[in-house]
Write a structure and sequence with these properties.
Length: 351
Amino acid sequence: MKRAKYAFTLIELLIAVTISGVVLAGAFSLQLVFHRAMNEEETIADMQANLDGIRFFFQKAMRQLGSGIGATVSYYNCNGSVETIATLGIHNSNSIPVVPDLTDGGVDNDPDWLEYTLASNLAMTYVDGQFSKTWADVQSTNGFYHRNVLGITINGKTCMMRLTNVVNNAHGGKLHFAPAHGGPFCMNQVITMEQCGVTSNSSTTPTSPIPIVNLGEFPFQALRVDTTRPASPVLMHGVKSLQNNSSTYTWVPLALDVEDLQLAVHVDTSNPPDERGDVWVNSRDTLAAEVGRWRALRVSVVVRTPTANSPVMTTRPALEDRPAGTPDRYKRRVLRFIAKIPNRPTQGGSI
C-alpha cells in the first residue's frame, strides 16, 4: 500500500514568496522611517546645540563688554592715524568694510553684525604718583604682562596703549608703553594720549585717581554671519590684532549653518540717564550720541539644516527689520533672547 507524499505546489510557493516580500518590504520601510527619524533628531539636536552655544557666547561677551573703560576708546591704528570708536558698534548692513546706515526705518536685506571691545584678561590698577605719555607709576603691576593692551581712562575717554615693559620698585611699579621700551607695535604712539588730554611730554600728577585696565592682548572683537557661500552660512568670530602691520580681523567659525543674525539695542533716552532702556533700535547703526546709553542687546538667531530636504516648504522668518525669505525646503530653529549690558562707561580720573 503506497503512502501519499505531500509537497508545496507552485501556487503555494508563489503565495509564500509574495507574503515574505511584503513582510520584508514593510520591515525595510519601518527601518527607513526609524533611520530618518533618528537623523532628524540628530539634526535638531545639532541646531539646538548651536543655538545654546551662541546664546552663552553672547551673554558672556555682553557681561564683560566695556568693563573698566569709557564709552569710547582711542588708539593708534596700523594705517598711521588715531582712531576713536565706541565700545559697542552694531551695523545694520553686513558689508565689510562697514557701510553706515544711520537712518531709522527701511528694509534690511542681510544679517546684522557687531563690533565690541572686550576685557578678556581683566586686571586693574591706578596711577600712583606721576605719569606721562609713555609711562605711569602705578599701585601694582600684578596681572600686567608684555603686549597686553592698557586702557587708560581720563575724563570719560579711554586711550589704548600696548604694554611694552613692567618695572617693579619700592614705590609699587611702573608701566611703560612707549615704542622705545618694547618694539614697534603700531598701537604705541604718544599722540594717542593727546586724545585723553595729555598734551605735555613732561610728567603729570593727576588730580583724581586714573584707572588703568589690562584688556588682554586682543580686545577688539566682532561677530558676523559669513554669507560668501549662501548654501553654507557661518557665524564667524573675529579678532583684530592691531600689530604686525595688520589691522584687519582674523575670522574663525563659531557656529555652522547660521542663516541670520538680527540685533536691536535698548537705548536709554531719559535725561538724566537712568538704568532703564526706553527705545529699541533695530533698523540702523548705533549712533555716537547713544554711546553709554545702551542697557540691553536683543539677539535673534536663525539656524537651519545643512541640506534642503524637508517635505514641507518653509521660509526664513521675519525678524526685527528684515522681512521673511522665500519658500524653500530647509528646516529651521529660531532663538531670541535679551542680553543685559551691565557695565556702565566709567569717567575714569582727571588731570
